[in-house]
Design brief:
5 helices; 434 Repressor (Amino-terminal Domain); six-stranded antiparallel sheet; Jelly Rolls; alpha+beta; 2 domains; 10 strands
Length: 190
């Protein structure tokens, strides 16, 4: 999550270990997790061995099975959170498949439910999540720069700079940027 290559490798290893722990805690075989998440057994095996980096979509699918937001999973592999997180110390994760950059602005902490995540999507990006990590999770998405098309199940929303979309995540979601504009937004989750 940090910007240097060694930290990225360490984060991949920690994510791999945590995914393995979550699967074992639920007594799931790789085949059962494949059926529940739609992620192939071979990809799951490579992820758990830190032989490949997870994409946002794959982490979303797995976190949906485990019942936790992606930001919570990422925070669990970091050190204990501090009440004050300077900008340069905020965890950053890069999606190798889409180029999305996800910044954990206010890391989740025990006893707190709210989180603030900063996301940047390149132009022409599509990220689809088949199910929420926890049904009913409240979101407030504030688009800062660019253009963003958000589809929540069958409801479509086109956002411009300064727009806010408030919703409870119940089913599938899809985030899409147009071919000529990326998007930078803040996501408040409660």
């Amino acid at each position: 999550m940090r910007n240097d290559r060694n930290a990225f490798t360490t984060i991949d290893s920690r994510i791999a270990a945590r995914l393995r722990e979550l699967r074992h805690a639920r007594n799931l075989s790789l085949e059962q997790l494949e059926a529940a998440s739609g992620v192939s057994r071979s990809t799951l095996s490579r992820l758990e061995k830190a032989q490949t980096s997870a994409t946002a979509e794959v982490l979303g699918r797995l976190c949906s099975v485990f019942g936790l937001p992606v930001s919570r999973l990422l925070q669990e592999v970091e050190n204990a959170p501090s009440p004050h997180v300077p900008h340069d110390a905020q965890s950053i994760w890069h999606d190798p498949a889409t180029g999305m950059v996800r910044r954990v602005i206010s890391p989740p902490a025990e006893g707190f439910t709210g989180e603030v995540i900063g996301c940047t999507l390149p132009a022409g990006t599509i990220i689809a999540y088949p199910a929420p990590p926890r049904p009913g999770l409240e979101h407030h998405l504030v688009l800062q720069v660019g253009a963003l098309h958000v589809t929540l199940e069958d409801d479509e929303h086109r956002l411009g700079p300064g727009d806010c979309l408030r919703y409870r995540l119940i089913g599938s979601s899809r985030f899409e940027t147009p071919p000529d504009h990326g998007a930078t937004y803040l996501l408040f989750m409660l």
